[in-house]
Design a protein that fits this description.
- The complex is a heterodimer.
- By secondary structure, chain A is an alpha/beta fold.
- Chain A has eleven helices and 15 strands.
- In chain A, strand 3, helix 3 and strand 4 form a beta-alpha-beta unit.
- In chain A, helix 1 runs parallel beside helix 10 and helix 3 crosses helix 4.
- By secondary structure, chain B is α/β, with parallel strands linked by helices.
- Chain B has a single domain, classed as Aldolase class I (TIM Barrel), CATH 3.20.20.70.
- Chain B has an eight-stranded parallel barrel with strand order 1-2-3-4-5-6-7-11, surrounded by four helices.
- Chain B is globular and about 50 Å long.
- Classes of the chains: A alpha/beta, B alpha/beta.
- Strand 11 of chain A pairs antiparallel with strand 8 of chain B, so a sheet runs across the interface.
């Protein structure tokens, strides 16, 4: 199984490459990708440097162009596709039908992967993208149970990549506009969820309130650890109860499913976190490399080592992890 | 399903676009889980209403089984007899093979037009005509062109796009394609594998006891400072506020919008249809209708997306607007 790691900048790319990634994914420095954060991502020149570095170590490079261009803006995505093609990247990770159509027409030799933002959760959808744009791989949204993943792989005309570790989107990616409902900016249109520009931290006599677009997301008592106010991880009131009504601050960790994912025929496992530090990328990549190597040596006896799980727990949101939708009771 | 009928009487036919016509009114699919009698009674009223088009079927959760496939078809026939154009709507989030099987039955029937809410449905339509629902991301004209080549006859504007984006998309709209706007209702904001209604009741999804039937307009989620923010509807999350674009009907006409969609709520939907109809025919002014509509909404209104603001915002109708 291929290990696909995040690279928010050149130091992260080097960290991923040096610690055992088989492929890295990255984006240009604008709203053409879904991690459009200040100070993150690559200019074309930096991307060329990154590609050269990865190539020397035999690591593949995928470029994410996984937002949805709106009228008037299509040219920017078109140029990004052209640039990625000129840089001879190993694959383009795209979501928008228009972008896929342009890329497959203009650059028929450029390998296309479906971004998780495509919301392709079933093999009929995958057949559409395969037939019309020659897509070779799809990243599955984090909504399928393990048995559903297996069923998709069995019937899919394209390779399947799944998320193994990182921040957990609770909603079907590409179809969640909670962020723009509160702020006007969504992953689809702007390339960011719960953007920092719309976050407020307000001290109160009781502690600290965090607001997104003016909406109270979290109320922290004094002394409590303060997390980032991602809308779906907030504390809300439903039916008289106050709790994490959508999801806890938690990360996905599917390492214990490696044997099942491999047996199902999943081709690649993806680590989330282009917005995280090079230290995070190095640490998570190294642990997952060790896990994949251990699995390759002894598939039947594979079990995540306690120290891996502990270390991954430390870099997780809310310091806790879950199997997410792979595990039906989570749903 | 009688496949013997060769001319689908209820299939839509895009009108010549040279003369801007009065937009038609549609009733979107019921997004909640209502008892069968409630659903039947609802469509009896819709049959009598001035709605032109009715979208039917379960789009949120395949476990909801009060109204079965045969029941939907019977309702569809009744509405067609009442002169409505009927469209069979499909599930937005497809995960299980059983869901694909149901989808295949919908997509292979030829009596009624199909609304595809996922690319899986578009794949199954195999070039036959279909409507593209708001959960399929049509954000630019190149996407519209690709889908039109596949058989798209109508598309629903994604709810987070602005009137300016719509204007540009209308200018580049492929021939023979109609445009529909989600103008009234709680906004569809997200879909998940997780059932948030079952979670609120401390039940696992696999043993949900169909508890969403207790919340005919969804379950309100409030912030800790009592701002009614979202509505949980099973695996779907909606806005608590109701989007209301009645003030924008003149702009929509100017942009050549063909269809205005009203999304059902458990009460007052027939009044909403009547108010929209009266504004469209010029019998009532927008400000007056707006005041009446505010009284029918569970949690007040919003229209921010249309104006390029946060979706939950509400821009007030300009003073003196007719």
């Amino acid at each position: 199984m291929e290990l696909v790691c995040p690279a928010g900048n050149l130091p992260s790319l080097k960290a991923a490459v040096d610690n055992g990634a088989n492929a890295v994914y990255l984006g240009f420095r604008d709203d053409t990708n879904a991690r459009h954060f200040a100070g993150l991502n690559f200019t074309p020149a930096k991307m060329a440097d990154g590609i050269a570095y990865a190539r020397r170590k035999g690591v593949r490079v995928f470029v994410a162009l996984n937002t949805f261009p709106r009228p008037g803006g299509f040219e920017r995505w078109q140029q990004a596709v052209d640039r990625a093609a000129e840089l001879k990247v190993d694959a383009l990770i795209a979501a928008d039908i228009g972008v896929l159509d342009y890329a497959s027409t203009r650059h028929p030799d450029l390998a296309l992967h479906l971004s998780v933002q495509t919301s392709a959760t079933n093999y009929e959808a995958l057949r559409f993208y395969h037939e019309h744009f020659g897509v070779r791989r799809a990243v599955l949204p984090r909504v399928l149970s393990m048995s559903q993943v297996r069923h998709v792989v069995e019937n899919s005309p394209v390779e399947i990549e799944v998320f193994g570790f990182g921040s957990l989107c609770v909603m079907v990616e590409g179809r969640c506009i909670l962020s723009s409902y509160a702020t006007g900016r969504s992953p689809n249109t702007y390339g960011a969820c719960s953007p920092a520009s719309h976050v407020e931290w307000i001290e109160t006599p009781q502690g600290l309130d965090t607001r997104l677009g003016g909406v109270l997301i979290q109320r922290h008592p004094k002394g409590e650890n303060v997390g980032y106010p991602t809308l779906c991880k907030g504390t809300f009131c439903v039916d008289g109860h106050t709790y994490h009504a959508i999801e806890d601050p938690i990360s996905l960790n599917a390492m214990e499913l490696l044997p099942e994912l491999a047996e199902a025929g999943v081709k690649a496992v993806k680590i989330e976190g282009r917005q995280r530090s090079p230290v995070y990328v190095a640490q998570v990549t190294r642990i997952w490399r060790q896990a994949l190597d251990a699995f390759a040596r002894n598939p039947g006896g594979f079990k995540p080592r306690p120290e891996w799980t502990a270390e991954l727990g430390k870099v997780s949101e809310g310091a806790q992890t879950t199997l997410g939708a792979y595990h039906r009771p989570w749903q | 399903m009688s496949s013997g009928r060769s001319t689908p009487s209820t299939m839509l036919s895009p009108s010549s676009d040279s003369v801007p016509q009065r937009p038609r009114l549609s009733v979107g699919p019921i997004s909640y889980y209502w008892p069968k009698d409630t659903v039947e009674a609802f469509y009896d009223r819709v049959a009598e209403s001035s709605a032109d088009i009715v979208y039917l079927g379960e789009t949120i959760c395949s476990k909801r089984n009060q109204v079965r496939w045969e029941d939907w078809l019977a309702i569809a026939e009744r509405l067609a007899d009442a002169g409505k154009e009927v469209v069979l709507s499909t599930l937005a989030l497809l995960e299980a093979e059983s869901e694909l099987m149901r989808l295949r039955s919908i997509c292979s029937q030829e009596r009624f037009m199909v609304e595809a809410n996922d690319l899986g449905a578009i794949n199954l339509m195999r070039g036959r005509p279909f409507v593209v629902g708001h959960s399929v991301n049509c954000y630019n004209d190149r996407t519209l062109a690709v889908l039109a080549r596949q058989g798209m006859r109508r598309w629903v504007l994604p709810v987070e796009l602005t009137h300016e984006a719509l204007a540009e998309l209308q200018a580049a709209r492929p021939d023979g394609v109609e445009t529909e706007v989600f103008a009234y209702g709680r906004l569809p904001l997200a879909y998940s594998a997780r059932c948030f209604t079952a979670r609120a009741r401390n039940l696992p999804k696999d043993d949900c006891r169909y508890c969403c039937i207790d919340y005919p307009d969804g379950l309100t989620l409030s912030t800790q400072d009592d701002n009614r923010f979202l509505a949980l509807n099973g695996i779907q999350t909606q806005s608590a506020r109701t989007v209301n674009l009645i003030g924008e009907l003149p702009r929509m006409r100017e942009l050549g919008v063909d269809i205005i969609r009203i999304s059902p709520q458990s009460s007052g939907t027939d009044e909403v249809i009547a108010l929209y109809h009266r504004v469209l025919t010029g019998e009532m002014d927008r400000a007056e209708a707006m005041a009446d509509l505010e009284r029918l909404m569970p949690t007040g209104s919003c229209n921010g997306y249309w104006h390029g603001a946060a979706g939950m915002e509400r821009e007030v109708l300009a003073v003196g607007a007719a």
